[in-house]
């Protein structure tokens, strides 16, 4: 008897589904789902979407805070976009950003990988050191910037004290046009390699022990094991960590603000730093909004490309 | 009957009248008594600003610490509470810029940073103070606005002769050598010309491990005096003609000179030095000469951290072929346009920049970069500023007067100065770090400045 | 001498002893299973033979060589893991050829070796597939193929069929057995399933708590288990145990029921507490005998499993005939003559 009733209900759902109507309980479930999601979406909209829309609208005006007449002046909506096409300093900032991003991501992946592989050996020494490797990432970024400012200032730096002992005459990199960006890259890599290290370490911990043992039985040395087994296993993880770091590298600010102020000249002026100068030192809100929009579009495209590559990669992983 | 009624009415009326009169006289009497009880320094009734909380913003500076020490008296007299919001200099400038642009009422008084004065005043973000000055009920008779040396106030007067602020600190560029003994040993006197100064540098650089010169990286403050000394100008004729002229041969020559100073005669890494770092260098005796505002040089003689108290010597900034144009600035208190407590704000500013207050801060507490002539000429001041036998007070006054008289600091107080100064900064960085020669760099700066000024909507 | 010799092998993790002196001789070409409950140390022993665990004491000999200090890759062994341990990013062919590639063997030689192994295991059509595209059974075969390609002295299997469903398990069992008959390589096979052990092994090693309980041919272990544990472990459904007292030539249960013991019962001597063992297939329902009450009837089709209550004890029997009994029926049981086992109740050791 019960079975027959159940069958009727199931058939009803089946029929309704075939007809394209969702059953009442399903609709209710969806409504509840949206109800729970609504507060978060509302907050996100206000905090993220509205300001972005405002920026987009502002980018069509030549808004200069010191000149009230420029607000809501849509007489020449594309003036900012035309200007940024010929703005050499902006183009330079893209180039500097590209250099900074590529090099720091590669270095951070490399260091993070090496340290993670070492830590994964789980010797007592490595276990003791594990926490200390996290310190750079845990420090507030401004503190990191000040630490490196001290390190790079010859008169107070312990490194230069050492150089003097060794009789080396080393110039400080942050005022040298050829080395300033490298100085920032070094500091940035020191600060963020623990991030990639942790992600890779987590993935390594989940790596099936049996694969490693099978490779050991098959005759793999440690190098062969790392190259043939561990690295292919980590491919997806490396891509994800790299993507995170890439997007984050576009936000590099404290290091540049404290160490070089975009200089000397403009050799360490990355795009978001240029935007900062334009908007907060000169109040060219309209122009910097336009540049921000362009930067945002580039980041969105970049993320999409990389996410496609990652999910394509992880499909071959299983 | 009738007579009784009238008498009653009259009596009643006259009784009421009498009572009213008594009340009136009593009130008047007590009011007089109340007024007579105290003699307030500031006008109007006792505690005129009871219950008012005044909020002000400034950048971190020791002067505000002095003021905060003296505040209890002021608060007692006026009944208001005064709160300071202090931030680091670059942060303050950016935040105040944004804050003022909103015409907000968060702050009742603020610091008008010298290099932003043109921008903020011409945008109408600050309140003109002339009405307050002309109202005897609001300004004490002995406030004496003319007591401020001209060079310290010139930035705060707009084209219509409207005054927007009163200085609490003045900066006058001087030359100080922390280790004059090294020059003396070589038989060299303090240089009086720019050409002479570089010869001195050549002679003493790295003697005894001391760099000949040191500077900070605020080239937009440090460099223009050299620029003008070599006969160049920043703008063609500020404030009317704002066309930059950064690529003239004179400017290029000045840039070459200044960059040579930075590259060859300063400690390594000088391009990254903040003003504090440069001062520390001099204080420790690791660098010899520096040209900057007196408040950065006085600690060489006065600070407990100074190792060079006995060997420091001062001089006026050496002159270039076209003369001497030592930079002079001031920082002033002003009232944001959007403030809702302007009377209270004015009462505070008046008190904070009064002679009496400066006497305390300058003569008793050691805030010697003061803008009032009466204080500078006070014998106690002269004594405090006699260092190793030199009369620094006169040098200081000389620079303040000169810049007011000749008006060569006008370039710094135009609305588009922040952008233009930044181009000069980058240009010097490029030359000193070897990325470009002076001509290329200054030509680039000129092009960038023109571009930027047009973007700000200025017709050139 | 070829084959594997395990002498006095001990394993300790810190202060915890896991293996207490194991001695096993494995002949060249023999198929030996290590069987026992979870935690008995069989996998540990296997991994020690492979070189994946260190040896705390004793020696392990492979093909006449003491291999205690030898690295796994040099022990001339190949291992098939419980979870196959295939390399997910390599094709089947690459998986199988990996060990040869590591040794720097010529690519053509690798190809022919892989193809030969694939032929044996019927994997030839799957060589370009990735592990995730294979079924469980196919993956297990690839794991075996990987082992075969190495042409080792010893195959080591670590519970390879545990992850497969029952039907596939039966099929793979015969395949592995067939492989062994073909290649004749010494094989050490670890399992917790005694049916696998019985059907595949030339020799069974029963282990418990880090000790060898008994070593012998499957049927020997079945017919003459050396102690209570082996008796209960081998055989499914497992042997019935009835606690009883043996005295003066007869064996009686606590409530007086007599159990047929025949010549085994020891005449004379003091009364002894014993465990009386009788396998389910040696019990029949008859007209007379030991009284019992039917408690459960479970027909499997080919046979019927019956549970009885005798006094306070339960008994399981397996009969071929279809009996029309219901739970609750009173019946009589007869035991096959001479099929009983007697064990000392205290030590568990076999009595005669």
In short:
The complex is a heterotrimer of chains A (318), B (460) and C (352). With 318 residues, chain A is mainly alpha-helical.
Give the helix level of chain B as a range of percent.
40-55%
Largest protein interface? Answer: A-B, 36 and 34 residues
**What is the CATH class of the largest domain in chain A?**
Mainly Alpha
CATH architecture designation of the largest domain in chain A: Orthogonal Bundle
Question: Which bin fits the share of residues in helices of chain A?
Answer: over 70%
General description of the model:
The complex is a heterotrimer of chains A (318), B (460) and C (352). Chain A has 318 residues and is an all-alpha fold. Chain A is 75% helix and 0% strand. The longest helix of chain A is centred in the N-terminal third of the chain and has 35 residues. Chain A is flat, with a radius of gyration of 27 Å. The model of chain A has no long low-confidence stretch (mean pLDDT 86). With 460 residues, chain B is an alpha/beta fold. Chain B has 21 helices and 12 strands. In chain B, the strands form 3 sheets. In chain B, strands 1, 2, 3, 4, 5, 8, 9 and 10 form an 8-stranded mixed β-sheet that branches. In chain B, strands 6-7 form a two-stranded antiparallel sheet. In chain B, strands 11-12 form a two-stranded antiparallel sheet. In chain B, strand 11 and strand 12 form a beta hairpin. Chain C has 2 domains: 225 residues, 3-Layer(aba) Sandwich (Rossmann fold); 105 residues, OB fold (Dihydrolipoamide Acetyltransferase, E2P). Chain C has 8 helices and 20 strands. Chains in contact: A-B, A-C. The interface between A and B is medium-sized, with 36 and 34 residues.
